[in-house]
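User: Last request for today: this protein with 2-acetamido-2-deoxy-beta-D-glucopyranose, please.
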Amino acid sequence: MASKTLAYAISALILLLQLSSSAGQTVVKGAYWFPGSGFPVSSIDSTLFTHLFCAFADLDASTYQVTISSSNSAQFSTFTQTVQQKNPAVKTLLSIGGGGANASTFASMASQASTRKSFIDSSIQLARNNNFSGLDLDWEYPSTTTEMTNLGLLLNEWRAAVANESNTTGKETLLLAAAFFYSSDYYSSIYPIQAISNSLDWVNVMAYDFYGPGWSSSTTGPPAALYNPTSQVSGDNGIEAWIQAGVPANKLALGLPFYGYAWRLLDASNNGIFAPANGSALSSDGSQTYSQIQDLITQSGYTTVYNSTIVTDYCYKETIWIGYDDNQSVSTKVTYAKEKGLLGYFAWHVGADKNSTLSSTASTTWG
Ligand SMILES: *[C@@H]1O[C@H](CO)[C@@H](O)[C@H](O)[C@H]1NC(C)=O
Ligand SMILES: *[C@@H]1O[C@H](CO)[C@@H](O)[C@H](O)[C@H]1NC(C)=O
Ligand SMILES: *[C@@H]1O[C@H](CO)[C@@H](O)[C@H](O)[C@H]1NC(C)=O
Ligand SMILES: *[C@@H]1O[C@H](CO)[C@@H](O)[C@H](O)[C@H]1NC(C)=O
Ligand SMILES: *[C@@H]1O[C@H](CO)[C@@H](O)[C@H](O)[C@H]1NC(C)=O
Ligand SMILES: *[C@@H]1O[C@H](CO)[C@@H](O)[C@H](O)[C@H]1NC(C)=O
Ligand SMILES: *[C@@H]1O[C@H](CO)[C@@H](O)[C@H](O)[C@H]1NC(C)=O
Ligand SMILES: *[C@@H]1O[C@H](CO)[C@@H](O)[C@H](O)[C@H]1NC(C)=O
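Assistant: Here's the final one, the structure of the complex with 2-acetamido-2-deoxy-beta-D-glucopyranose:
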Protein backbone atom coordinates (compact mmCIF):
# COMPACT_ATOMS: atom_id res chain seq x y z
CA MET A 1 0.00 0.00 0.00
CA ALA A 2 2.65 2.45 1.13
CA SER A 3 4.94 1.60 -1.77
CA LYS A 4 2.04 2.05 -4.19
CA THR A 5 1.36 5.52 -2.73
CA LEU A 6 5.04 6.32 -3.02
CA ALA A 7 5.07 5.16 -6.64
CA TYR A 8 2.07 7.41 -7.36
CA ALA A 9 3.77 10.31 -5.60
CA ILE A 10 6.94 9.79 -7.62
CA SER A 11 5.12 9.56 -10.93
CA ALA A 12 3.09 12.65 -10.05
CA LEU A 13 6.31 14.47 -9.24
CA ILE A 14 7.88 13.38 -12.53
CA LEU A 15 4.78 14.56 -14.41
CA LEU A 16 4.96 17.90 -12.60
CA LEU A 17 8.61 18.32 -13.50
CA GLN A 18 7.84 17.50 -17.12
CA LEU A 19 4.94 19.93 -17.15
CA SER A 20 7.00 22.71 -15.63
CA SER A 21 9.78 22.25 -18.17
CA SER A 22 7.39 22.07 -21.12
CA ALA A 23 5.64 25.18 -19.81
CA GLY A 24 8.75 27.04 -20.91
CA GLN A 25 10.44 30.09 -19.50
CA THR A 26 9.48 31.50 -16.13
CA VAL A 27 10.78 34.99 -16.90
CA VAL A 28 12.52 36.72 -19.75
CA LYS A 29 14.90 39.52 -18.86
CA GLY A 30 16.30 39.97 -22.32
CA ALA A 31 18.47 42.24 -24.43
CA TYR A 32 19.76 42.35 -27.97
CA TRP A 33 23.40 42.81 -28.84
CA PHE A 34 24.77 43.62 -32.30
CA PRO A 35 28.35 44.05 -33.49
CA GLY A 36 27.78 47.53 -34.96
CA SER A 37 27.12 48.86 -31.45
CA GLY A 38 30.86 48.74 -30.81
CA PHE A 39 30.16 47.27 -27.38
CA PRO A 40 32.31 44.19 -26.73
CA VAL A 41 30.38 41.00 -25.93
CA SER A 42 32.72 40.52 -22.97
CA SER A 43 31.46 43.82 -21.51
CA ILE A 44 27.84 42.63 -21.26
CA ASP A 45 26.86 42.17 -17.61
CA SER A 46 25.03 38.93 -18.35
CA THR A 47 24.13 38.48 -14.67
CA LEU A 48 21.36 41.06 -15.29
CA PHE A 49 19.71 38.91 -18.01
CA THR A 50 18.11 35.52 -18.51
CA HIS A 51 18.25 35.69 -22.34
CA LEU A 52 20.57 37.48 -24.75
CA PHE A 53 19.89 37.90 -28.46
CA CYS A 54 22.79 37.98 -30.91
CA ALA A 55 21.75 40.09 -33.91
CA PHE A 56 21.59 39.52 -36.82
CA ALA A 57 21.99 36.46 -38.96
CA ASP A 58 21.00 37.01 -42.59
CA LEU A 59 18.56 35.39 -44.99
CA ASP A 60 20.18 34.57 -48.34
CA ALA A 61 17.94 35.91 -51.11
CA SER A 62 18.75 33.10 -53.54
CA THR A 63 19.04 29.98 -51.36
CA TYR A 64 16.70 31.12 -48.54
CA GLN A 65 19.23 29.71 -46.10
CA VAL A 66 20.13 31.53 -42.92
CA THR A 67 23.76 32.58 -42.84
CA ILE A 68 26.18 34.47 -40.62
CA SER A 69 28.28 37.00 -42.50
CA SER A 70 31.99 36.35 -42.45
CA SER A 71 32.61 39.63 -40.64
CA ASN A 72 30.33 38.49 -37.80
CA SER A 73 31.27 34.83 -37.63
CA ALA A 74 34.03 35.08 -35.01
CA GLN A 75 31.97 37.14 -32.55
CA PHE A 76 28.79 35.12 -33.12
CA SER A 77 30.42 31.73 -32.69
CA THR A 78 31.92 32.70 -29.31
CA PHE A 79 28.91 34.75 -28.14
CA THR A 80 27.39 32.03 -25.97
CA GLN A 81 30.62 30.97 -24.30
CA THR A 82 31.56 34.61 -23.64
CA VAL A 83 28.28 35.65 -22.00
CA GLN A 84 28.06 32.37 -20.06
CA GLN A 85 31.35 33.13 -18.33
CA LYS A 86 29.64 35.64 -16.03
CA ASN A 87 26.29 33.84 -15.98
CA PRO A 88 26.36 30.12 -16.87
CA ALA A 89 22.54 30.01 -16.85
CA VAL A 90 21.98 32.73 -19.45
CA LYS A 91 20.34 31.49 -22.67
CA THR A 92 21.31 32.86 -26.04
CA LEU A 93 19.25 33.23 -29.20
CA LEU A 94 20.46 33.89 -32.71
CA SER A 95 18.28 36.65 -34.20
CA ILE A 96 17.52 36.53 -37.90
CA GLY A 97 16.72 39.55 -40.06
CA GLY A 98 16.20 42.89 -38.32
CA GLY A 99 15.07 46.33 -39.43
CA GLY A 100 17.83 46.56 -42.02
CA ALA A 101 16.95 43.29 -43.75
CA ASN A 102 14.85 43.06 -46.90
CA ALA A 103 11.29 42.14 -45.85
CA SER A 104 10.48 40.92 -49.39
CA THR A 105 13.06 38.17 -49.07
CA PHE A 106 11.29 36.91 -45.94
CA ALA A 107 7.95 37.11 -47.74
CA SER A 108 9.29 35.05 -50.66
CA MET A 109 10.89 32.51 -48.34
CA ALA A 110 7.67 32.05 -46.36
CA SER A 111 5.53 31.65 -49.49
CA GLN A 112 6.64 28.12 -50.42
CA ALA A 113 7.11 24.92 -48.44
CA SER A 114 10.51 24.18 -50.00
CA THR A 115 11.98 27.61 -49.19
CA ARG A 116 10.51 27.55 -45.68
CA LYS A 117 12.33 24.24 -45.23
CA SER A 118 15.62 25.81 -46.39
CA PHE A 119 15.18 28.55 -43.82
CA ILE A 120 14.19 26.18 -41.05
CA ASP A 121 16.83 23.50 -41.59
CA SER A 122 19.67 25.99 -42.05
CA SER A 123 18.62 28.02 -39.01
CA ILE A 124 18.66 24.94 -36.78
CA GLN A 125 22.04 23.86 -38.09
CA LEU A 126 23.45 27.36 -37.61
CA ALA A 127 22.14 27.56 -34.05
CA ARG A 128 23.66 24.20 -33.14
CA ASN A 129 26.99 24.85 -34.86
CA ASN A 130 27.35 28.11 -32.99
CA ASN A 131 26.13 27.00 -29.55
CA PHE A 132 22.95 29.08 -29.38
CA SER A 133 20.05 27.98 -27.15
CA GLY A 134 17.46 29.23 -29.59
CA LEU A 135 16.39 31.25 -32.62
CA ASP A 136 14.56 34.56 -32.98
CA LEU A 137 12.77 35.72 -36.12
CA ASP A 138 12.95 39.47 -36.84
CA TRP A 139 10.97 39.85 -40.06
CA GLU A 140 10.06 43.53 -40.18
CA TYR A 141 7.32 43.23 -41.25
CA PRO A 142 4.92 40.75 -42.80
CA SER A 143 2.46 43.25 -44.24
CA THR A 144 -0.34 41.50 -46.13
CA THR A 145 -2.93 38.90 -45.17
CA THR A 146 -1.13 36.33 -47.31
CA GLU A 147 2.20 37.09 -45.66
CA MET A 148 0.60 36.73 -42.24
CA THR A 149 -0.83 33.35 -43.24
CA ASN A 150 2.57 32.24 -44.52
CA LEU A 151 4.22 33.44 -41.32
CA GLY A 152 1.84 31.12 -39.46
CA LEU A 153 2.85 28.16 -41.65
CA LEU A 154 6.52 29.00 -41.11
CA LEU A 155 6.14 29.13 -37.34
CA ASN A 156 4.24 25.83 -37.17
CA GLU A 157 6.78 24.07 -39.38
CA TRP A 158 9.66 25.60 -37.42
CA ARG A 159 8.17 24.25 -34.17
CA ALA A 160 7.72 20.77 -35.62
CA ALA A 161 11.31 20.83 -36.88
CA VAL A 162 12.90 21.88 -33.58
CA ALA A 163 10.81 19.27 -31.74
CA ASN A 164 11.93 16.58 -34.17
CA GLU A 165 15.55 17.71 -33.99
CA SER A 166 15.49 17.54 -30.20
CA ASN A 167 13.86 14.11 -30.36
CA THR A 168 16.41 12.67 -32.72
CA THR A 169 19.51 14.27 -31.17
CA GLY A 170 18.51 14.17 -27.50
CA LYS A 171 19.51 17.84 -27.16
CA GLU A 172 17.35 20.36 -25.35
CA THR A 173 14.74 21.80 -27.73
CA LEU A 174 15.86 25.07 -29.28
CA LEU A 175 13.88 28.09 -28.05
CA LEU A 176 11.81 29.86 -30.70
CA ALA A 177 11.00 33.55 -30.32
CA ALA A 178 10.09 36.38 -32.67
CA ALA A 179 10.15 40.16 -32.53
CA PHE A 180 6.82 41.58 -33.71
CA PHE A 181 5.16 44.94 -34.20
CA TYR A 182 3.91 46.66 -31.03
CA SER A 183 0.35 45.58 -31.90
CA SER A 184 -1.19 42.33 -33.19
CA ASP A 185 -2.72 44.47 -35.95
CA TYR A 186 -0.10 45.63 -38.46
CA TYR A 187 -1.95 48.35 -40.40
CA SER A 188 -5.01 46.07 -40.75
CA SER A 189 -3.10 42.83 -41.36
CA ILE A 190 -3.55 40.61 -38.33
CA TYR A 191 -0.69 38.45 -37.11
CA PRO A 192 -1.39 34.65 -37.13
CA ILE A 193 -2.42 34.43 -33.50
CA GLN A 194 -3.02 30.66 -33.27
CA ALA A 195 0.34 29.74 -34.80
CA ILE A 196 2.12 32.27 -32.60
CA SER A 197 0.46 30.89 -29.45
CA ASN A 198 1.12 27.27 -30.40
CA SER A 199 4.57 27.49 -31.91
CA LEU A 200 6.58 30.28 -30.29
CA ASP A 201 8.01 30.21 -26.80
CA TRP A 202 7.34 33.94 -26.67
CA VAL A 203 7.03 37.20 -28.61
CA ASN A 204 9.21 40.28 -28.21
CA VAL A 205 6.74 43.15 -28.54
CA MET A 206 8.56 46.13 -30.08
CA ALA A 207 6.82 48.85 -28.08
CA TYR A 208 8.98 51.72 -29.27
CA ASP A 209 9.65 54.05 -32.23
CA PHE A 210 6.15 55.53 -31.84
CA TYR A 211 7.50 59.06 -32.35
CA GLY A 212 10.77 60.15 -33.89
CA PRO A 213 11.99 63.20 -35.79
CA GLY A 214 12.24 61.13 -38.98
CA TRP A 215 8.48 60.50 -39.19
CA SER A 216 6.93 62.97 -36.71
CA SER A 217 9.21 65.89 -37.38
CA SER A 218 6.97 68.86 -36.60
CA THR A 219 6.29 68.07 -32.94
CA THR A 220 8.26 66.36 -30.19
CA GLY A 221 6.75 63.11 -28.95
CA PRO A 222 7.22 60.28 -26.45
CA PRO A 223 9.17 57.68 -28.49
CA ALA A 224 7.99 54.72 -26.42
CA ALA A 225 4.95 55.98 -24.49
CA LEU A 226 3.35 53.35 -22.26
CA TYR A 227 0.11 55.35 -22.33
CA ASN A 228 -0.99 57.96 -24.84
CA PRO A 229 -3.90 60.28 -24.11
CA THR A 230 -3.81 61.68 -27.67
CA SER A 231 -3.67 58.54 -29.82
CA GLN A 232 -3.90 54.76 -30.00
CA VAL A 233 -0.15 54.41 -30.33
CA SER A 234 1.20 53.22 -26.99
CA GLY A 235 2.79 50.21 -25.38
CA ASP A 236 -0.31 49.50 -23.30
CA ASN A 237 -2.60 49.58 -26.35
CA GLY A 238 -0.29 47.22 -28.18
CA ILE A 239 -0.02 44.74 -25.31
CA GLU A 240 -3.81 44.87 -24.85
CA ALA A 241 -4.30 44.19 -28.56
CA TRP A 242 -2.04 41.12 -28.40
CA ILE A 243 -3.86 39.77 -25.35
CA GLN A 244 -7.34 40.51 -26.77
CA ALA A 245 -6.34 38.77 -30.00
CA GLY A 246 -5.59 35.63 -28.00
CA VAL A 247 -1.86 35.42 -27.34
CA PRO A 248 -1.45 34.51 -23.66
CA ALA A 249 0.04 37.35 -21.60
CA ASN A 250 2.74 34.98 -20.39
CA LYS A 251 4.06 34.67 -23.95
CA LEU A 252 4.69 38.40 -24.31
CA ALA A 253 7.85 40.34 -23.46
CA LEU A 254 7.63 44.14 -23.40
CA GLY A 255 10.23 46.01 -25.42
CA LEU A 256 12.29 48.73 -23.74
CA PRO A 257 14.32 51.15 -25.86
CA PHE A 258 17.76 51.89 -24.44
CA TYR A 259 17.87 54.91 -26.75
CA GLY A 260 15.93 58.06 -27.46
CA TYR A 261 15.36 60.65 -30.18
CA ALA A 262 16.44 64.29 -30.27
CA TRP A 263 14.37 67.02 -31.93
CA ARG A 264 15.13 70.66 -32.67
CA LEU A 265 12.56 72.85 -30.90
CA LEU A 266 11.10 75.84 -32.75
CA ASP A 267 10.95 77.78 -29.50
CA ALA A 268 13.28 77.05 -26.58
CA SER A 269 10.61 78.12 -24.11
CA ASN A 270 7.99 75.71 -25.50
CA ASN A 271 9.65 72.49 -24.40
CA GLY A 272 7.00 69.96 -23.39
CA ILE A 273 5.76 66.75 -24.99
CA PHE A 274 4.16 67.52 -28.39
CA ALA A 275 5.91 70.90 -28.60
CA PRO A 276 6.49 72.39 -32.08
CA ALA A 277 9.72 71.14 -33.61
CA ASN A 278 11.60 71.05 -36.85
CA GLY A 279 13.19 67.66 -37.40
CA SER A 280 16.12 66.00 -35.75
CA ALA A 281 18.95 67.25 -33.60
CA LEU A 282 22.34 65.77 -32.62
CA SER A 283 22.35 63.06 -35.32
CA SER A 284 20.78 62.66 -38.73
CA ASP A 285 17.83 60.59 -37.49
CA GLY A 286 18.02 62.12 -34.01
CA SER A 287 18.78 58.80 -32.31
CA GLN A 288 20.94 58.87 -29.21
CA THR A 289 21.92 55.93 -27.02
CA TYR A 290 21.00 56.08 -23.36
CA SER A 291 24.72 56.39 -22.54
CA GLN A 292 25.03 59.42 -24.84
CA ILE A 293 21.95 60.96 -23.20
CA GLN A 294 23.38 60.25 -19.73
CA ASP A 295 26.55 62.06 -20.71
CA LEU A 296 24.60 65.08 -22.04
CA ILE A 297 22.62 65.26 -18.80
CA THR A 298 25.64 65.01 -16.50
CA GLN A 299 28.10 67.03 -18.59
CA SER A 300 26.00 69.58 -20.48
CA GLY A 301 23.38 70.50 -17.91
CA TYR A 302 20.17 69.32 -19.58
CA THR A 303 16.92 69.68 -17.61
CA THR A 304 15.23 66.30 -17.03
CA VAL A 305 11.49 65.60 -16.68
CA TYR A 306 9.54 62.40 -16.05
CA ASN A 307 5.91 62.37 -17.18
CA SER A 308 4.05 59.67 -15.26
CA THR A 309 0.82 60.04 -17.28
CA ILE A 310 2.52 58.97 -20.49
CA VAL A 311 5.44 57.14 -18.84
CA THR A 312 8.30 58.79 -20.68
CA ASP A 313 11.36 60.72 -19.72
CA TYR A 314 12.57 63.73 -21.62
CA CYS A 315 15.32 66.28 -21.28
CA TYR A 316 16.08 69.54 -23.00
CA LYS A 317 18.57 72.34 -23.26
CA GLU A 318 17.97 75.46 -25.34
CA THR A 319 16.41 74.19 -28.59
CA ILE A 320 17.41 70.52 -28.20
CA TRP A 321 14.71 68.18 -26.86
CA ILE A 322 15.26 64.43 -26.26
CA GLY A 323 12.53 61.86 -25.54
CA TYR A 324 13.84 58.62 -23.99
CA ASP A 325 13.41 56.09 -21.20
CA ASP A 326 15.33 56.65 -17.98
CA ASN A 327 15.11 54.80 -14.65
CA GLN A 328 11.57 55.90 -13.87
CA SER A 329 10.08 54.94 -17.23
CA VAL A 330 11.92 51.64 -17.19
CA SER A 331 10.88 50.74 -13.65
CA THR A 332 7.25 51.76 -14.31
CA LYS A 333 7.17 49.65 -17.49
CA VAL A 334 8.74 46.63 -15.82
CA THR A 335 6.22 46.90 -12.97
CA TYR A 336 3.45 47.14 -15.58
CA ALA A 337 4.78 44.03 -17.37
CA LYS A 338 4.86 42.06 -14.14
CA GLU A 339 1.39 43.18 -13.02
CA LYS A 340 -0.08 42.29 -16.44
CA GLY A 341 1.30 38.77 -16.11
CA LEU A 342 3.68 39.18 -19.04
CA LEU A 343 6.65 36.85 -19.38
CA GLY A 344 9.09 39.71 -19.01
CA TYR A 345 10.83 42.39 -21.01
CA PHE A 346 13.66 42.87 -23.45
CA ALA A 347 15.86 45.80 -24.41
CA TRP A 348 17.12 47.08 -27.71
CA HIS A 349 20.04 47.23 -27.16
CA VAL A 350 22.47 46.28 -24.41
CA GLY A 351 25.40 48.30 -25.79
CA ALA A 352 23.41 51.54 -25.55
CA ASP A 353 23.48 51.27 -21.75
CA LYS A 354 27.23 51.00 -21.21
CA ASN A 355 27.12 51.39 -17.44
CA SER A 356 24.19 48.93 -17.10
CA THR A 357 22.10 51.60 -15.40
CA LEU A 358 18.83 50.67 -17.11
CA SER A 359 19.60 46.95 -17.20
CA SER A 360 20.09 47.01 -13.41
CA THR A 361 16.98 49.08 -12.84
CA ALA A 362 14.90 46.70 -14.95
CA SER A 363 16.29 43.54 -13.37
CA THR A 364 15.96 44.87 -9.81
CA THR A 365 12.42 46.11 -10.44
CA TRP A 366 11.27 42.71 -11.71
CA GLY A 367 13.02 41.05 -8.74
C1 LIG B 1 14.38 43.15 -51.78
O1 LIG B 1 14.14 41.86 -52.28
C2 LIG B 1 13.30 41.84 -53.43
C3 LIG B 1 12.96 40.39 -53.75
O2 LIG B 1 13.93 39.52 -53.26
C4 LIG B 1 14.02 42.55 -54.59
O3 LIG B 1 13.23 42.55 -55.71
C5 LIG B 1 14.34 43.97 -54.14
O4 LIG B 1 15.12 44.61 -55.12
C6 LIG B 1 15.09 44.00 -52.83
N1 LIG B 1 15.15 45.36 -52.35
C7 LIG B 1 16.28 45.89 -51.89
C8 LIG B 1 16.19 47.29 -51.41
O5 LIG B 1 17.33 45.27 -51.86
C1 LIG C 1 30.32 25.20 -27.80
O1 LIG C 1 30.53 25.19 -26.40
C2 LIG C 1 31.32 24.11 -25.97
C3 LIG C 1 31.33 24.14 -24.45
O2 LIG C 1 31.32 25.44 -23.95
C4 LIG C 1 32.71 24.23 -26.58
O3 LIG C 1 33.47 23.11 -26.20
C5 LIG C 1 32.60 24.26 -28.10
O4 LIG C 1 33.85 24.49 -28.66
C6 LIG C 1 31.65 25.33 -28.53
N1 LIG C 1 31.41 25.24 -29.95
C7 LIG C 1 31.57 26.27 -30.75
C8 LIG C 1 31.23 26.05 -32.18
O5 LIG C 1 31.97 27.36 -30.37
C1 LIG D 1 9.25 12.57 -30.51
O1 LIG D 1 9.36 11.24 -30.05
C2 LIG D 1 8.16 10.74 -29.49
C3 LIG D 1 8.47 9.36 -28.91
O2 LIG D 1 9.26 8.59 -29.81
C4 LIG D 1 7.07 10.71 -30.53
O3 LIG D 1 5.88 10.28 -29.96
C5 LIG D 1 6.88 12.13 -31.06
O4 LIG D 1 5.93 12.12 -32.10
C6 LIG D 1 8.18 12.68 -31.56
N1 LIG D 1 7.98 14.10 -31.92
C7 LIG D 1 8.47 14.59 -33.02
C8 LIG D 1 8.16 16.03 -33.27
O5 LIG D 1 9.14 13.98 -33.81
C1 LIG E 1 14.08 14.88 -37.97
O1 LIG E 1 15.43 15.08 -37.50
C2 LIG E 1 16.37 14.25 -38.14
C3 LIG E 1 17.71 14.48 -37.45
O2 LIG E 1 17.89 15.80 -37.04
C4 LIG E 1 16.41 14.59 -39.62
O3 LIG E 1 17.33 13.73 -40.28
C5 LIG E 1 15.03 14.42 -40.22
O4 LIG E 1 15.03 14.83 -41.57
C6 LIG E 1 14.02 15.22 -39.45
N1 LIG E 1 12.68 15.00 -39.95
C7 LIG E 1 11.87 15.99 -40.26
C8 LIG E 1 10.51 15.60 -40.71
O5 LIG E 1 12.19 17.15 -40.17
C1 LIG F 1 2.33 64.84 -19.30
O1 LIG F 1 2.23 65.07 -20.68
C2 LIG F 1 0.91 65.36 -21.12
C3 LIG F 1 0.94 65.50 -22.63
O2 LIG F 1 1.77 66.53 -23.01
C4 LIG F 1 0.42 66.64 -20.45
O3 LIG F 1 -0.91 66.87 -20.85
C5 LIG F 1 0.51 66.49 -18.96
O4 LIG F 1 0.19 67.72 -18.35
C6 LIG F 1 1.90 66.07 -18.56
N1 LIG F 1 1.90 65.78 -17.15
C7 LIG F 1 2.69 66.40 -16.32
C8 LIG F 1 2.59 65.99 -14.89
O5 LIG F 1 3.48 67.24 -16.72
C1 LIG G 1 12.97 73.88 -40.63
O1 LIG G 1 14.33 73.76 -41.00
C2 LIG G 1 14.57 73.99 -42.37
C3 LIG G 1 16.07 73.82 -42.61
O2 LIG G 1 16.52 72.64 -42.03
C4 LIG G 1 14.15 75.41 -42.75
O3 LIG G 1 14.33 75.59 -44.13
C5 LIG G 1 12.70 75.62 -42.36
O4 LIG G 1 12.35 76.95 -42.58
C6 LIG G 1 12.47 75.26 -40.90
N1 LIG G 1 11.04 75.35 -40.61
C7 LIG G 1 10.56 76.08 -39.64
C8 LIG G 1 9.08 76.03 -39.44
O5 LIG G 1 11.28 76.73 -38.92
C1 LIG H 1 29.69 55.49 -16.76
O1 LIG H 1 30.90 54.85 -16.39
C2 LIG H 1 32.07 55.58 -16.73
C3 LIG H 1 33.26 54.70 -16.43
O2 LIG H 1 33.10 54.04 -15.21
C4 LIG H 1 32.08 56.87 -15.95
O3 LIG H 1 33.22 57.64 -16.29
C5 LIG H 1 30.82 57.66 -16.30
O4 LIG H 1 30.74 58.81 -15.51
C6 LIG H 1 29.57 56.83 -16.07
N1 LIG H 1 28.46 57.58 -16.59
C7 LIG H 1 27.38 57.81 -15.88
C8 LIG H 1 26.36 58.68 -16.53
O5 LIG H 1 27.20 57.33 -14.77
C1 LIG I 1 19.15 54.76 -11.87
O1 LIG I 1 19.13 53.59 -11.10
C2 LIG I 1 20.40 53.09 -10.77
C3 LIG I 1 20.20 51.78 -10.02
O2 LIG I 1 19.44 50.89 -10.75
C4 LIG I 1 21.16 54.10 -9.93
O3 LIG I 1 22.45 53.60 -9.69
C5 LIG I 1 21.25 55.39 -10.70
O4 LIG I 1 21.83 56.39 -9.87
C6 LIG I 1 19.89 55.88 -11.15
N1 LIG I 1 20.08 57.00 -12.04
C7 LIG I 1 19.25 58.03 -12.08
C8 LIG I 1 19.57 59.10 -13.08
O5 LIG I 1 18.27 58.10 -11.38
